[in-house]
Amino acid sequence: MSFPKQISGSRCRVCGGPVSEFFDFGRQPLSDAFHEQPPADELFFRLAVGNCSWCTMVQLMEEVPRDRMFHAGYPYLSSGSAVMRDHFGKVAGRFLETELTGPNPFVVELGCNDGVMLRTIAEAGVRHLGVEPSGGVADLAAAKGVRVRKSFFEEQVATEILAQDGPADVIYAANTLCHIPYLGSILRGVDALLAPDGVFVFEDPYFSDIVERASFDQIYDEHFYLFTVRSVQSAARPYGLELVDVERLPVHGGEVRYTLARAGGRRPAPAVAELLAEEHERRLTEAETLAGFGSRVEGIRERLVTLLRELKAKGKRVAGYGATAKSATVLNYCGIGPDLIPYITDTTKAKQGTKTPGSHIPVLGPEAFRDPYPDYAVLFAWNHAAEIMEKEVGFAGVGGEWITYVPDVCVV
Ligand SMILES: [Zn+2]
Fold first, then answer.
1. Mean local confidence (pLDDT), 258-284
2. What is the pLDDT of residue 79?
3. How many whole angstroms from 13 Cα to the centroid of ligand 1?
4. For the residues 62-80, what does the mean pLDDT come to?
5. How many helices (H) and strands (E) does the chain have?
6. Are strands 194-205 and 168-174 parallel, antiparallel or unpaired?
7. In the β-sheet with 127-131, what is the strand arrangement from edge to edge?
8. Residue 106 belongs to what H/E stretch?
9. 57: CA distance to ligand 1 center in Å?
10. Cα 183 to middle of ligand 1, angstroms
C-alpha cells in the first residue's frame, strides 16, 4: 500500500520556496514497522530528498503521517546505549549548572522518549515536563519518576503547558525536531512557552556530516529534515528566535546541538559564524555537492551488494548486527533480503521475533549472534561501532569480520 498523495509536493515545508529533489531512494517501508508477519498491505512511500532554493532546508519530498510512526508501539529506546545514557546525563548536568540556576526553574523536553535525560532533572528535584506521543516509551519515562504528557508538541499544547506551569527556562529536544514536518507550529509553540531569557536547545543529525561521510542511511521516514546551521537560522528568524550557539556532537554519526534564544537576548557565540562559514566554503547545499553525494551513495550500493553476493557464493555465513531504523534505507535501497543476510540480531526485545520492514529479514535476539558466530557481520548500528566492537570482542577473536558501509564499504 502506498500513500496516495504527495503532501509536501515541491514546496518547502518551512518557507514555501521551491524544493529541488536531489536523490531518490525508491520505495521504502516505515523504518520502525517490525512485524512478526508483515501485513499484505504493508505501507510503503517514496523516500526522496530535496533542498529548498530559498532557505536551503534539506527535506523529504513525501511526508509520512506522524501517527503511523510515533505510536504506542514505537520501539526505539534512547537508554539502549551506554554512550547515549552518558551523553544525556551530561546534557542534564549542564542545564542544571548553567540554565536552571534561577528560582524554581522549569524544563520541557519534546520527545522525552524513556526519560533518559529528564530522569536526572527529576532526581535533582527540578520542575520539568516531558512531552512524548509514543505511549510505550512515555510509560517507561513515568516509571523513572519523570512527569510526562502523552501528546505531540505543537502550538496549542505549548499554550496549555504555559497556562499550567508557566514559562520554560529550557526547552530541549534530542533527535526529535528533525522528525516533525510542521516545524512552524513547533516554533510558534516555543515562542509561546519560552521564558524571556530562556533557551531552546535541540540536537539532530547534521547534514554536513551526512554528506561528508555519505551516511545516506540517516535519511529515512523519521528524519524529515536534515538541518544545517544556515537552514536552522533562517527557519527560526520569522519566530523571533535567534541561533546563539552551535556545537558539533560525535553521537549518532555526527550531530549539531543548536541553541536558540529570543532575538537580541543573547550574544551569538563565535561558533555560529564559524560553522556557517564552513558550510558556505563546502558549498554544502549546492547542486554539484548534492550530485556528488548521490554518486557516492550509488557506488556504496553497488559495492555492498557485490560483496554480499560474493560471500554468499563462497558459502560464508553473514549476519546483520542491529535492526536499526536506518537499516531500512540500506536494505530496501540496495534490495538486500534474507537471501543475502539471513538474520539480523538486535537487543531491543520488541523487535526480536519480527521481520525487518520491507526487506523481511528475521530479527533474532543477541544470543543468536554468538551461537555460533557468523563469518561476517554487517554493522547496521555503525553509529555505535566502538561500543559494539568492544562488547563483541569474542567475534573478532574467532576470526569474524565486520562489514561497514559508511563512509564506504569496508571489511574490518
Ligand atoms: Zn525553504
1. 97
2. 75
3. 7
4. 74
5. 14, 17
6. parallel
7. 148-149, 127-131, 106-110, 168-174, 194-205, 255-262, 241-249
8. strand 106-110
9. 5
10. 11
CA 68 to CA 232: how far, in whole Å?
26
Confidence of residue 5 (pLDDT cuts 50, 70, 90): very low
Residues whose CB falls within 8 Å of the CB of residue 253, separated by 6 or more in sequence, listed in order: 205, 209, 210, 213, 215, 218, 382, 383, 406
pLDDT tens, 195-210? 999 999 999 999 999 9
Name, in order, each residue with C-beta under 8 angstroms of 318's C-beta and a sequence gap of 6 or more.
308, 311, 312, 340, 341, 342, 374, 375, 376, 377, 378, 403
In the chain, the amino acid numbered 216 is F
**Crossing angle, helix 183-193 and helix 155-165, to 10 degrees?**
20
Amino acid at 381: A
- For ligand 1, the distance from its centroid to the CA atom of residue 285, given in whole angstroms, is 12
Please list, in sequence order, all residues whose beta carbon lies within 8 angstroms of the beta carbon of residue 231, skipping any fewer than 6 positions away. Answer: 14, 52, 55, 56, 57, 58, 207, 225, 285
Please tell me the distance between residue 113's alpha carbon and the centre of ligand 1 in angstroms. 29
Cell of 226: 536534515
Residue 215 alpha carbon to ligand 1 centre in Å: 23
Q: Are 321 and 369 in contact (CB under 8 A)?
A: yes
Are 117 and 181 in contact by the 8 Å Cβ rule? The answer is: no
**What pLDDT is recorded for position 77?**
74
pLDDT per position as a tens digit, 339-394: 999 999 999 898 999 999 999 999 999 999 999 999 999 999 998 899 999 999 99
CA of 50 to the centre of ligand 1 (A): 11
16 Cα–ligand 1 center, Å: 6
